[in-house]
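U., I forgot to send this yesterday:
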Amino acid sequence: MARLMLEQLSDFGDYSGSKELTESLKVIHNEQKSPSNVRLSPDGRHIHVILCKPKVGLMTFDKYERPQLVQNQKKLDLCLKRPVPIVDILYLDNNNNNNSSRDTASVAVVYENGKAEFWKFQECKGGWHLLQTSDLCNSPRARVLSVCVCTNLIIWCEERPPSESSPAFSSTRNKLRYCVCRRDFEVEEGAVSLGGVKIALHNNPKFTVVSSGEYVHLLPDMKVKPLLSISKLFLSWYPLQDTFRVSTTCKNTPLRKLSAKESDFRRLVTDCLGYLSALEPPEIYDFSPSHCGGLLLLLSTGWVCLLQKDGMLRQVYKLADNCLVKYGTHTSLCVYQDTLALVIGQTLHLIDLNCGRELEKIMLKREGLLYANKADRWTPHLLLETGLFMVVHQEKDVRDSNFKMKPSPLSTVGNIHPGALLVEAIFEEACKYYQQRSLSSTQLTVDALKKGRFQAPISLASILRSYLSTGMRQRGAELSQNGGGGCVAGQDKLMGSLEAELKALVSLEEVKGSLVRGSVKEVEAVCESLVEKEVTRLLLSSELDKESLLYLNSIFSIFPCQAWRATQSALQLHYNGEGSLSSRAPPDMWKTVLTHTPASSFPASLPLANGVPKNKHSLKSDHNANCKSKSPSSTSRAALPVFELLCSSVFHFQPAWLPRFLELAQQQQGSASLGLSLASSSWGFSSGRGGEGGENNVPLYKRALYVLSSLNPDREKHQDLEVELLLVSRRPNAILQALRVLIGKQQWERVTQVAQKFCKQSPLLNKEIFTTLLCEVAQHRDLDPYLDLLWTLCPEDLTVTTILNLVLKNLPSPNTPSPSSFSMSNTTSTCPAPFADSQSSQLTIGLLKPLLRKVLQRESKPSQRYADILQSPMFPPPAPPRQPTDRPRTVTDSPVGNDLITTPLTEIPE
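Result:
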């Protein structure tokens, strides 16, 4: 298999002052200084060594295309000219496409005091020539800390002098006394034209400015930590649109993105400081600009991350535990198209940037400095103490001018394309990841992952997007020549496996970003959409476990309004305005709503009396807890089942809908139980009426009454709603209970309406209702206006004897202390019999006349029910037994004539 190795390009012999260059590099190594102060030009022809204290200055070593001109060169050697430290060297024509000559180069040497010297290299004229000296900063007291060049802009971070009216150290204002400035420039034939100074950011801490493509990244100072929260973030600035992006190393997406001109740093990050105070992001140990506006970051955790131009922070490679970076360790990193090169100490790591796989590890004799050569951007280049090197394949002839470094050492073996390896590598790594965390002993295979069990990490989304982006299309012709059709098919298969996870991931990241960056209205809209999706997802679940039910309760507690609207949308509730509620939700959703949840708190073990909890004290406690339901602490309460949760939401926002909602739920429950047999129904109803038998299947109306009672312990306040719930249930006991409530409230018109409606439901219920109302007629005169209607409700099997016995047993007690309420003695009355006093509640035969006449007429007709028995005279019916004489106030079955109508009921003999 092909291996990667270092091939020497130069031993510095072809550079001017080669011995001096070698000695300078040895001094740097012997004094254990970092070679980061060495700069190489983009074409590799110029090497600059920035000298630090105590001897400050600059040494330059040049490579001439025509060596005969070396004797007449003019070196850019500033060791003795300026005692001011040099901040950096900028190549101004690096992005200038107009200057295509390899014989010229323009640089700016920026000093700490704000001075900038502009030099130009011309081989035909003997070397370096000073074009001009300018002041970058407006203030002579300003101090430049870092500088970079981005397209036609010079950008730097300068320190403003501290205010004389404030303390020198403790004041926050003095810690934020830095600003980021910019100046336009244009390289002309004999000079450099500079624009005016513009402030891009002010009141900021000390930043290191790093240029990458069209972006400028502002990184916190790695040597001195500024304020605690400020040191946890970094900025990305896009000068063309003047936009800033706030990011941190522990979040893969930006915290905030906004447009600003001459922005105040304090206003820029104010909204993020509270969030950042709770984070502990890893520190940035090293960085390097990448192509297309990205930035490589080496973090204290050992991760190498790539900050992409869109703000996504992708983890690329994790150093081994024994290779973790410490302060003082030499590091260098650089990107070469699809290959990441990383130097840690004296080890060179070569990593595939797309999948994070280590391609090779090469041991070095000395610390090295990685650099990019614009003539060969695919190949890693390295500067060592002994010369310049490049990474090549061992069997490849390095003198071949057509050589290009491939992103994988296997890419040239067996005509296997890197894209195909990427697809398989992703599945293999994921298979190992899930196997380590699986509780099953079954071996997990790559095929199983490809069939839909794969959940992609965030980095995978970036890999795919990067690999399928414009760069991939630009190399389409080259791939087709090398047989890359299988790679495309593999990527399609991979995308198919990841499509659902990637969509969910993108949606989640969009929501997180909207919550961080959005205004109040935007956050409300995001919450509305998120709650609706979550409620719909939970209601469509086949089974809700305890955690999911608690989660659903917390949603209704924290976002009550949004949850109510989400419920209407999920169940597709429609109120037609005529007193009916409809729903077009699927049956599976109603199954989740109506099925009792064992993990919930209600109501299997709660004692109920006709739907009302018996324990009043616990009701008050539940009511008080519900009043505090909007606080997060309420989620610690036992979770309500889904039906009770929806009932409470309906009651809170639309109380008038609660009976209609109960009616709709009963219809859905009934249609499910009728549509499928009990044995095969997926609803799993136990035996009992309407599928509600057993302690875990409490009738729906009782569950709704429980919610009503728990939310409002004052029963009188919502008694009308309670009556509606009882009537909607259409259960005999509930209807009778509602009738008693209405009788107690003396709503006689409503009583008669209920009686007339529900007497048609069943003969047994008809008899119970009529008996109850007849007892009320016997006790008072409030129902007299409705007697004609009541007599029409009399059941067919009720006889005169039964009617009179019921009336006599329910006559009111006289206003005497005698315990006997049915004394046969004459009552003291000022009115002649059979008429009663207008103020009296006494019932007379005259009021019962229509009912008795109707019953007698019905009894006088032969009953067709027993026609076969009456036609057989062989056996006469047995004589009725004698009634005992000691039973007062009963009526025999003797014929009753019209003269009974004029006799008061209290004077009827036994």
